[in-house]
Amino acid sequence: MKLKNRGFMLITFIMALVMSACSSDGEKNAASTGTSDGQTTTDVPQEIVVRVNDDPDFLDPHKATASISYQMILNIFEGLMAPETDGSLKEGLAESYEISEDGLTYTFKIRQGVKFHNGDDVTMEDIQYSFDRLMGKNGGEKMSNNFDNVASTEAPDANTFVIKLKEPNSNFLYSLTARQSAIIPKSNDGKHNENPIGTGPFAFVKYAPGTNLELKKNEHYWQEGLPYLNKVTFAFQSDDQAAIMSLMANEVDLTSVPWHRVSEVEASYNLSHQNNNSSLIVTFNETKAPFDNVKVRQAINYAISKADIIDSVFAGYAVPLGSNMSPAMGDFQKKGLESMYERDVEKAKALLAEAGYPDGFKTKITVSSHNDIYSNIAQIVVANLQEIGIDVEIEVVEWGIWLDRVYFGRDYEMTTIDLTGRASAYEILNDYISTNDSENFFLFKNEEYDKIMADVLKETDQAKQIDYYHRAQEILAEQATAVYIADYQIVWGSDKQVTGLKSYPFWFHDMSEVKFSN
Fold first, then answer.
1. Up-side HSE of residue 404: CA atoms within 13 Å toward CB?
2. Residues 482, 19: contact at Cβ < 8 Å?
3. 54 and 42 in contact (C-beta within 8 Å)?
4. HEC profile of 427-444
5. CB 328 within 8 Å of CB 274
6. Can you give the pLDDT at residue 489?
7. Who contacts 325 (Cβ-Cβ below 8 Å, separation ≥6)?
8. Which of 102, 447, 480, 518 lies at 20 to 30 Å from 397 by C-alpha?
9. Is residue 132 very low, low, confident or very high in pLDDT (cuts 50, 70, 90)?
10. What is the pLDDT of residues 140-177, one digit of tens each?
11. pLDDT tens, position by position, 492-518
12. How many CB atoms lie within 10 A of CB 429?
């Protein structure tokens, strides 16, 4: 899975893919397109069905937490800034911006003529409302910690929005994309979840829980010529094997393909490999004994075989990790940590004995049912830990229960999940800050780590930022905060006519440039 400002994933890293799809009457609407000589011809159908593992947790972008939600709803919403596929940022609803020399004042010029899906113009009042709502002003509930450093916001004129910070923050612009701060209309207050309205390339049509989410083309989208698709349907199907059958039956146009079934579809469908930029982990509630003992956590790190998981669960489509950062992050990743805990059963037993558990102990690993990989990983964990005397019970729960009990409620002993990748190194690592109550579901606490993550925001030199991030990753490894297993690839199967697929360093099925070609 993946969750919001931190993130979880349901399948990691990011991209946008899409394919042809059937309408309710079993047929697709043909799109009319212009030819080079100016004549209009009937092209292939421009409707798509994209299979995703489960329902969104919220359609309200300010409340959504799971990355699976953002895969879909980022097609509806936009922020002042927008992501690029290489992890950088570009202007979104902001046409341009300036940052003051002291790094405290951000001035945005807002695009004129942009409309919400309901036909209303985007105004300064809407932008102010969106940030006030996120910050919990005007008596509302605070929905994000990203803006705790904001001193003030103001709109000096009809197309200028100014944000002033209390302290410089080298990561602040990353808080201004739709994933963190979607711009939504004030007129829709109280109805953002049941009737979401944004400015993105696709507008909400309907949501059928347990079945699908349907979007339609925004005919008045401000980016001229986009989107190409008339309709996007996200179909919810948790079973990977059933999803392959749906693909073969032309019931869906895009789905992830289980690694062991690639050979069955590679001849008839386009296959693409997506590096997730995520961290698949087995982790602990560090406030519960015996996981409050670092030697116990280290023993489990030595006992669990990353190679077994990579080979058995992912058929080799994965790269081993040693921290919460993927090689996809380039220089920001601290290399070499993946070999810190080479499997050593005897060393694991010795550490358990030193921790006061020479005969092991009993525990439980709670996993979500929304993706088979978690149960498959849990079975390997059980077998590995039996070798050092740890008796692990597997508890499989529905996705919503996992979110409520494990992620939000912190009511668990062990779990496995994959943490969603981000374009920002800071956002990848800030889950572990002790004061990050909304995302630190491990309940990890380390003073040196907290200081590093505070200091890096004040550092403008990227080389020095990298040094900070490297040390932060070393702490996570030394403290065995989790068993960092792998960043695994997703293999996507799609209709051969689909073009315009894009990948991002976070989960996003970007439909804006996707189309079916002859």
1. 6
2. no
3. no
4. HHHHHHCCCCCCCCCCCC
5. no
6. 85
7. 279, 332, 333, 334, 425, 428, 429, 469, 473
8. 480
9. very high
10. 889 998 899 999 999 999 999 999 999 999 899 999 99
11. 889 888 889 888 877 789 999 999 988
12. 25
Strand 362-368 and strand 391-397: pairing? parallel
The tokens describing 475, both together, are 């702490």
Tracing tokens 């394919």 back to the chain, one arrives at: 19
**Burial class for 107, CB neighbours closer than 10 Å (0-12, 13-18, 19+):** middle
**Burial (0-12, 13-18, 19+ Cβ within 10 Å), 43:** middle
The encoded tokens of residue 208 equal 């059928």
Q: What is the DSSP string of 315-328?
A: TT-EEE-SSS--GG
Residue 209 burial (CB < 10 Å; 0-12/13-18/19+)? exposed
Q: Can you tell me the distance from the alpha carbon of 33 to that of 44, in angstroms, rounded to the nearest whole number?
A: 9
Question: Angle at the Cα of 315 (from 313 to 320), degrees rounded to 5?
Answer: 75
- For residue 93, give both structure tokens: 């609803």
pLDDT at 481: 97
pLDDT at residue number 24 = 36
**Nearest one of 118, 232, 137 to 184, comparing CA atoms:** 118
Number of CB atoms found within 10 A of residue 26's CB: 6
Location of structure tokens 């982990």: 281
3-state SS, residue 399: helix
For residues 318 and 273, give the distance between their C-alpha atoms in angstroms, rounded to a whole number.
Answer: 11
Which helix (H) or strand (E) is 265 found in, with range?
helix 262-265
pTM: 0.74
Tokens 């909304």 belong to 438
What type of residue is 482?
A
The answer to whether 445 and 433 have CB atoms below 8 angstroms apart is no
Helix (H, G, I), strand (E, B) or coil at 468: helix
